[in-house]
Specification:
It is a single chain. The chain is an alpha/beta fold. It contains 3 helices and 6 strands. The relative contact order is 0.19.
Length: about 120
């Protein structure tokens, strides 16, 4: 079973050798805006998550296509392993919730705003 942690807890325990061996479910993090870097196949991104205070580098190693809800400022729950020597998290599962409720506006407005940003 996965060991449930939050970002502060994970970083506090980062020096614990047992942690590197465990499957971790990391919750309560948000994708840092502008941090998503896709590979050439637009399949396995590297990105940064934050709890509003601390940040952590994440590499997605899974085989599933990430949902459309995976985007800047999305709330994510990650499953995978922490890699201490690289200070990063290798996730093979990413659950993402759209960021609308943290924007103080409806999802439709959010989409419109995002579309207008790109035009």
């Amino acid at each position: 079973a996965a060991h449930h942690v939050t970002l502060p807890l994970l970083l506090e325990q980062a020096g614990d050798p047992d942690l590197a061996e465990r499957r971790i479910r990391l919750g309560g993090s948000m994708v840092v805006k502008g941090s998503i870097r896709w590979d050439e196949y637009r399949h396995r991104p590297e990105f940064t998550v934050t709890d509003g205070d601390r940040t952590l580098e994440v590499h997605y190693k899974g085989s599933a296509v990430l949902p459309d809800t995976f985007q800047d400022r999305a709330l994510v729950v990650l499953e995978g392993q922490y890699v201490p020597h690289a200070a990063r998290f290798d996730a093979d599962v990413v659950y993402a919730k759209c960021p609308s409720k943290y924007e103080g506006q409806s999802y439709e407005t959010h989409v419109e705003v995002r579309l207008s940003d790109t035009l």
